[in-house]
Design goal:
The protein is mostly helical. It has two domains: 187 residues, Hypothetical protein af1432; 202 residues, Hypothetical protein af1432. The chain contains 25 helices and two strands. Helix 16 packs across helix 22 and helix 22 packs across helix 23. The termini are far apart. The N terminus and C terminus are likely disordered.
Length: 480
């Protein structure tokens, strides 16, 4: 049953989370809808195994949240491989880690893409000399995803399934090295579901089924391989999986009723905070960016006389305004030198992705466009839409100011954070041209009074354990 959500609209938890999974697909380098298709595969397996409703409910949300920790290892992957982390993740998900020669060849292929041979070889040797690398990056991803499942109020079985999603039947998986029936059943289901989907998307049905059979008893629980093998000629099933236009309808149709999760305004705030943590974990240089932008935006709106609903929209829009950045490579986000025109072109794509993701969530659609307009300017020289003053709502103007203020005061790969007088001096040069005069003046008063500094201390952060403290992973790391 749908329950009453924000602004009197009926919202289902599955609707909110399934829409936000498109952001996770972006940062994993997967085709749009990967997570939803994985969930459909997992649910079919669960039903054929005759799991009860409670267990099916735990599996359903574990499938949707399985990649919620994926951004926490993006900087590490990019630094180690010296390549686009999204492409590395997509490619490495397809290789059989137990085949050392194939693994070495795939690793070499993904090292230092676009760089000179010396740089590529240096990255490869660094990975070869870091035997714990795979365990470390998987552990970071699994632990963060499991934490987020708990934060959002899902049962322990959901969190446990996410924590062990990369354990292999033979005991050579990660992060713990569990084997056979030691691995939670839901984790076993998720592993074969996500790997099957990735292979099917890249190589088709026959190759995907063949892959599961080749890894039977090594990666996968033999019983699960035998089940999915019976699907090979079920063309109607694969057609449903391939129907991108109705994918969200399909996932909502299989939502079980085994997890009773009340959707309230507070829960929607909670999921916005959780995904802000996912966004900010993408790069160590934005460890608190989304949360701080949200706090500054709420303070500005309140100082301008905004009511409770407007303040709540400012909070959620601030937390989620950069969700599209999950689709940008860490080679660009963490680059310590000036971006090329092509790299800046990639950066310019993220507001569109923010809009496309947030508008899928009915509870967030009211502020989705304004959240995505945080790089627009009054004079029409912003991006990506080059909108001008009359076209920009108050929330867009507030976010533009809050975003730039936070970015200038924070450390970045190419400079240390600036002090308040220096930041305000820079921003006032664009007063009335780039920034709304009233909004900028309100922000300046809050900054000069020390209010922003107190907000940035994070005393009201509901999930401090999901924060990632800054740590420097240079994509170049001394490599020419």
């Amino acid at each position: 049953m749908p329950v009453l959500g924000a602004r009197g609209a009926f919202v289902r938890p599955a609707e909110v989370i399934s829409a936000l999974t498109y952001a996770l697909d972006l940062t994993e380098g997967q085709r749009p809808g990967h997570t939803l298709r994985t969930a459909l595969i997992a649910m079919r397996l669960g039903r054929e195994l005759s799991l009860d409703d409670v267990t099916l409910g735990a599996l359903y949300y574990a499938a949707l949240l399985k990649d919620s920790g994926c951004s926490s290892n993006a900087a590490r992957m990019s630094a180690l491989f010296g390549s686009d982390d999204r492409e590395v993740k997509r490619s490495m998900r397809l290789v059989d880690w137990h085949d050392r020669w194939r693994l070495a060849a795939r690793t070499a292929k993904n090292c230092g893409i676009g760089r000179n041979p010396v740089a590529r070889a240096t990255h490869f040797l660094r990975i070869a000399r870091t035997p714990t690398m795979t365990r470390e990056v998987i552990q970071a991803r699994c632990e963060r995803g499991a934490q987020i499942a708990i934060v959002l109020g899902f049962p322990r079985a959901t969190s446990e399934a996410v924590a062990h999603v990369d354990e292999h039947w033979c005991g050579l998986g990660h992060p713990v090295g569990l084997a056979g029936d030691e691995i939670p059943l839901l984790s076993r289901i998720l592993l074969i579901a996500q790997t099957l989907e990735a292979y099917w998307s890249e190589h088709g049905i026959d190759a995907a089924i063949d892959m599961t059979q080749q890894r039977r008893g090594r990666w996968f629980d033999p019983r699960l391989v035998d089940l999915v093998s019976t699907w090979k000629h079920d063309r109607r099933w694969w057609a449903v999986l391939a129907d991108g236009a109705h994918l969200e309808e399909s996932i909502l149709a299989v939502e079980p009723h085994g997890v009773a999760l009340p959707i309230t305004e507070e829960w929607l705030d909670r999921i916005a905070y959780a995904f802000a943590a996912v966004i900010d974990a993408k790069t160590p240089y934005t460890a608190r960016h989304s949360t701080n932008v949200a706090r500054y935006a709420v303070a500005i709106v309140r100082s301008l006389g905004g009511d409770a609903d407007e303040c709540r929209d400012a909070l959620r829009a601030g937390l989620l305004h950069d969700i599209g950045k999950l689709g940008v490579s860490n080679r660009i986000l963490d680059k310590p030198t000036k971006l090329t025109d092509a790299e800046f072109g990639e950066i310019r794509k993220h507001p569109r992705w923010t809009w496309e993701i947030l508008e899928r969530v009915s509870a967030f659609s009211g502020f989705a466009r304004e959240a995505a307009e945080h790089h627009e300017r009054l004079d029409g020289r912003g991006y990506p839409w080059q909108m001008a003053g009359p076209q920009l709502g108050l929330l867009s103007r507030v976010l533009a100011v809050a975003d730039v203020y936070e970015a200038l005061t924070a450390d970045r790969p190419y400079r240390a954070g600036l002090d308040v007088p220096g930041v305000l001096d820079i921003m006032r040069r664009d007063r009335g041209t780039g920034f709304d005069c009233h909004v900028l003046d309100a922000a300046a008063a809050l900054a000069e009074s020390g209010t922003f500094a107190l907000l940035a201390e994070g005393r009201d952060d509901p999930f401090p354990h999901l924060r990632q403290e800054p740590a420097k992973y240079s994509c170049l790391d001394g490599v020419a």
